[in-house]
Amino acid sequence: MKPDLKLILSVSSPLLLLIVWQAVTAFKLFPPEVLVSPTAVVAAFGEVIATGELQRHLSESLTRLAGGFTTGASLGLLFGLALALSKTVEQVFGPTFQALRQIPVLAFIPMLILLLGIDEVFKIVIIAKAAFFPVALAAYDSVKGVPKSYFEVSSLYRAPWWVLISKILIPATIPNILAGVRLSLTRSWLVLVAAELIVADSGLGQMMEMGRQMFRLDIVMVGVIVAGVIGFGLDRLFQLLQAHALRWKTA
Amino acid sequence: MTLKTLNLNAFKPVWLLGLIPPVLFLLWWDHEAAKGGANALAFVSLAQVGQALIDMFSSGELALSYGSSLGRALSGLLIGGGIGTLVGIAMGLSKPVEWAASPIYNSFRQVPILGWLPLIGLWFGSGDLSKLIIVALSAFYPTVLYTFEGLKQVEARLLDVGRVYRLNGWQTFWRIQWPAALPSIFTGLFQALAFTWISTIGVELLFSSGAGLGAMMQQAQLQARLDIVLVCILFVGLTGFAINFLIKRLSQHVLSWRSVRA
Amino acid sequence: MDYVPHSQIPGHKVKQTGAVSLKGIKKQFNFKDRELKVLSEFSLDVQPGEFVSIVGPSGCGKSTLLRLIAGLDDTYDGTITLDGQRVAGTSLERGLVFQDHRLFPWMTLEDNIALALTNRQISKDAKAKLVADHIALVGLKGFEKAFPHQLSGGMAQRAAIARSLVNEPKVLLLDEPFGALDALTRVHLQGELQRIWLAQGSTMIMITHDVEEALYLGDRVVVMQANPGRITHTVDVNLPHPRDRASPVLHRLKDEILAELTNVPEAPNSVVRLIKGDDQ
Ligand SMILES: Nc1ncnc2c1ncn2[C@@H]1O[C@H](COP(=O)(O)OP(=O)(O)O)[C@@H](O)[C@H]1O
Ligand SMILES: [Mg+2]
């Protein structure tokens, strides 16, 4: 068997990057405020874990994320469903919803700081807002997208409303809604990191911002990597949940 | 029955219903602002917001900030989108490049875009260069992905035609692969456009020295000038709206031959 | 063999080149660790300027065979020659018309046809003239600037034929060129193809699942069977071109071929599929 070029290349390219990085720092091509070695980053990682700093920041960030995301996503789900199912709700709230959706969440940060201060409430609200819109939109779109013929079939068989919901509405809409929830989770994480960087009083974002102000490149890099790993991990976790919830689809 | 509904709608335009929430909200807002007291700092009257808009407009401050943000977003799109398209092409045309580049691309992409800012700030300072790098990066990711996917999905049946007429590598790329991938590439660019606007506001909020709508908002926040903040939000939102509208229109146009079978 | 060479058919322009010879072709696909024998000991000699029709059930390897002759696939055993020269890779001497027209939706009809001339070492003017001539040949004058989605299925297929003829190939390979068209357009295009063939005189090898079409156009009809793909029968059609569809000879031959195709103990389903024509 010939060697698997794909495997070799996809393993060696990140490795090569690491080696070059280490080599560049070993030859001191840049001062340490500009580039620290991978091993220094690992050491900094050990340091922030040993002092408990990382765990503290991370647990603050994740608690916030959990609170904001759950609130925003569930409100978004309810709102999206109401918007799709009731003509009146759609006529009254639809235009406002569509207009607010166009404004990047980040743009609300200064206003919310002025109205709510920089405490926990502000952070939860901004994350909730980030989580709200993708879920609401997905719920609205997917319920609206259920073909009329499905409902006609069920009325033909005189199905009661709970059958309509459990046998038609939920199976037909859940895949798209879950996709919206997944997007809103990613967005929430992005907005949380941004908000923590701006306000910089606690959490992973603050750790990075402090690192920057103290020229601790190693700590900043630890922050970047942790932010990436958490973002990836959350998305993966949700993907698994999604696959689990949708296993009837492939069966 | 149909006639009746029609008449009803003619006399009661339904779109007016959509004005209820914003109008109620504004009335409540003005009421809170008029109450003064504990809330006086935060709530500003609509008249004040209007005045701020006029002031910012006439002093040229608004135009300067807006122009600077828009310029940042567009240059980020140009740079990030340009490099992204080239990288996407390299990955889409060469399997070894794909294999070597995708693990790196995929791991870098996991970091929330604004999370790069402290690091970039250490390297390049908190000025325009750092901001541009982040904005360009936000355009880079979707263009790489969609260019790559677009090229990967060019059907073998179309490539066979090129082989029958003995097109060389360059001719095959330029006459077949590139146009076939173009709808996908445009989709990526559209997404990049939306992303650059968001990340522009984000970087300006974080590195709030210099011009820009985000910087203006952040500075106004420090001075507790909600009126200015609101004017900025209005313009950020209107631009977001315009971008989405533009994207919708352009994609209908650009994607029109996707529905046509080759 | 009482085959009358096409050169004796009145009104036919004869070329001395375009002899295709297939000797002992064996082709298999390795599919999920399984070997799928598609063609076995397939041999066929086609005279210069001859029109050979190939009919056979779905999946018997007809498209595969054409791809081998076109040079799109080089992994097979046996030899394929054109005028005594072994074929290797694609060549402008061997044109190919696919079942779906495969015009590029982003190019005008004119550009689609000109694409075929990309690597011909002739002047720009000569290219433009060739393109214009071939558009006229297939009766699409006036549609030069049209995009494929503005053409009907029949027009698009004509454009595809023009594209494959514009290089004046020695042999034209046609893979169910009219398979996707409605019956009326089909009859019309069969007539057109016959006219073009008579005018151009290049060798043609056409695959079809329509026995009537095969007989109406072909000097010879080759009948294939599946598993593995091989020739079971060859029918010579000794009638002058252009032909009369109502000819009793054609009807007799058609019955003969259909009987042959229905009489296959090892593949009872093939005829049903053949008649339904779902050869995709
Ligand atoms: N690229 C391929 N890989 C594997 N099997 C193939 C491939 N192309 C064709 N086949 C198989 O070879 C057989 C003959 O295919 P084809 O030549 O398309 O038949 P026909 O054109 O006569 O309908 C079929 O069983 C088909 O599934
Ligand atoms: Mg076929």
Automatic annotation (TrEMBL), chain A:
It is a multi-pass membrane protein. InterPro entries: MetI-like, MetI-like_sf. It comes from the Bacteria. The chain crosses the membrane at residues 66-85, 97-116, 160-181, 188-208, 214-234. Its main location: membrane. One of its GO terms (cellular component) is plasma membrane. Pfam families: BPD_transp_1. GO terms for biological process: alkanesulfonate transmembrane transport. Residues 58-238 form the ABC transmembrane type-1 domain. Belongs to the binding-protein-dependent transport system permease family. This is ABC transporter permease. It comes from Asticcacaulis endophyticus. The lineage of its organism: Bacteria, Pseudomonadati, Pseudomonadota, Alphaproteobacteria, Caulobacterales. The gene is ssuC.
TrEMBL record, chain B:
It comes from the Bacteria. GO terms for biological process: transmembrane transport. Residues 66-247 form the ABC transmembrane type-1 domain. The keyword Membrane applies. Pfam families: BPD_transp_1. It comes from Asticcacaulis endophyticus. GO terms for cellular component: plasma membrane. It is found in: Cell membrane. SUPFAM superfamilies: MetI-like. Gene3D superfamilies: MetI-like. The chain crosses the membrane at residues 12-29, 74-93, 114-141, 185-207, 228-247. PROSITE patterns: ABC_TM1 (PS50928). Belongs to the binding-protein-dependent transport system permease family. It is a multi-pass membrane protein. This is ABC transporter permease. Its main location: membrane. Keywords: Cell membrane, Membrane, Transmembrane, Transmembrane helix, Transport.
Automatic annotation (TrEMBL), chain C:
SUPFAM superfamilies: P-loop containing nucleoside triphosphate hydrolases. Keywords: ATP-binding, Nucleotide-binding, Transport. It holds the Pfam family ABC_tran. Residues 20-251 form the ABC transporter domain. GO terms for molecular function: ATP binding; ATP hydrolysis activity. CDD domains: ABC_NrtD_SsuB_transporters. InterPro entries: AAA+_ATPase (IPR003593), ABC_transporter-like_ATP-bd (IPR003439), ABC_transporter-like_CS (IPR017871), ABC_transporter_ATP-bind (IPR050166), P-loop_NTPase (IPR027417). Signal peptide: none annotated. SMART domains: AAA (SM00382). PANTHER family: ALIPHATIC SULFONATES IMPORT ATP-BINDING PROTEIN SSUB, TAURINE IMPORT ATP-BINDING PROTEIN-RELATED. Belongs to the ABC transporter superfamily. This is Sulfonate ABC transporter ATP-binding protein. It comes from Asticcacaulis endophyticus. The gene is ssuB.
